[in-house]
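Recall that a protein's primary structure is simply its ordered list of amino acids. Everything else, from secondary elements to tertiary packing, is in principle encoded there. The following example makes that idea concrete.
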Amino acid sequence: METIQLHLDEKDSDTILIHVINPKVMGFLHELEKLHLIEVLRKNVAPVKTKLSDKYRGVFSKEDGENLNEHIKQMRGEWESI
């Protein structure tokens, strides 16, 4: 599987990231590029990995976060006592 970043239109400067699931699509994309309908900017673009701490920051209130941590500690203690 391949990930490609495509530039769609010079006027709008629309750029999209496409994750190609079926390799047959690559030929189609290259044909569109030959017709000057799209421009392939980069191939095999690594997806941006967001740290889980950044992704879920602010989801819980401080109180809920503390309650969750206490519950996790309790569960770990119960698991270790088995």
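The chain has two domains: 2-43, 50-82. The chain has a mean pLDDT of 81.
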